[in-house]
Amino acid sequence: MQKNYNRYLLQMSIADVYYRHPSQMTITGMRHKRLTQIYAIGGVSTSCMITAVVYSESGGTYKTTMTANIAVALERMGKNTLVLDLDPQEGNLTSLFDVGEHRSDPEADNLVKHILDMPDGDFDDLIETTAEGVDVIPSHDMLGDFTSNLEQKIAYETGMQNMSREEYPRFELLYELLWDTQNLQEEYDAILIDPNARAEDLLYNAIYALRTLVAPVKPAGKGNLSLDGLDELVGNMERELDIEIGLSCVVPSGVGQTNAHKQYQQQFENTEAFATPVTISDRESLMDAMWEARGSAFKVVEERWKTFESDGEMVSEPGRRRIRDREVETLRRLYTLASFVATETFDTDVDPVLELEIRDHGTRTIDLTEDDLTEAKTV
Question: How far is CA 182 from CA 114, 123, 217, in A?
């Protein structure tokens, strides 16, 4: 069996609480499952819907920028894509895409109020569309108090309904909002979540709702320990939530040229326990420029954003960046990653061709069915 099909796929779509009849196999001592039927929510097929939480326990893995890049890649592939930003910290996806004007306003309607069933407006009004076409539900400061607000809700409702705290479905609230109340499976082809890193109620709600992980991991000399840790992480979450969770793929990120990094990369690429479709090299300049461009790495290259010193101050402007083949290759890998998640994990078709309209440099075409880039000069 080819490695691409040896993926750690425990993903049972977003309705697997009610429909689970997967076949099972054991490979290299780890559990693998293949999707064997169409699942539905309220009678709506979700077998081709892409749902993933981009999650890493540690920082420095490009988690937020990877979420943004996968989302934009899926949008360019023709998939109507929504991203939920559940990270209350500064420097999150909301800041990256320059949305969420009212994130610090305690009176403003936000996702937490809807999750806790106390909205101050229509759910659709929470959604903002970015310049690159991706829809985003922004972060809000109220996310930082999610657990304390949830505890108040649980105390009130368990008292009113004469039920124990253990019976309360505290991890199922986001699931119910997205699929049962808002029926987002009827509006979107793909939904991603950029979560908080701490293993608490907000993260568990995200994973319970989407059921599938994309795991960026940073270089480390103890690659085997990282592999063991991923298996342990998924197992712990499954036991806590009493569901099955799929690990779509592992993405080594920020990989440099040191021997330790190369060894780390080989360990992940050679394992059959997890799919590793791409490795993202250390592209700190490209990823940092995303924050100045307020968009994806695709936008940085196309608009040629660069940060430089001018008159003693650091400024960022479009039209200044050199076109580097290694950065275009990084875009190819990001596009390949999004394609893998869509086609290999969720068995849905995508457009394999990406047209890069680079400012003052014409068009470059990335075709995942071919090996080389095609470049068209501007006349």
Answer: 10, 8, 33
Q: What is the pLDDT of residues 274-297, one digit of tens each?
A: 899 998 988 989 999 999 999 999
Taken in order of first residue, the domains within the chain and their CATH numbers are 3-104+123-147+170-348 (3.40.50.300)
Amino acid identity of residue 60, one-letter, is: G
Task: Compute the C-alpha angle 233/337/28, nearest 5°.
Answer: 45
74-99 pLDDT, tens digit each: 999 999 999 999 999 877 899 999 99
Are 104 and 142 within 8 A, CB to CB? no
| Identity of the amino acid at 240 | E
Residue with tokens 């394609």: 339
Give the pair of three-digit tokens for residue 198. 């701490």
Burial class (CB within 10 angstroms; exposed 0-12, middle 13-18, buried 19+) of 217? buried
| Dihedral angle, C-alpha 336, 337, 343, 349, nearest 10 ° | -50
Backbone angles phi, psi at 24, to 5 degrees: -130, 150
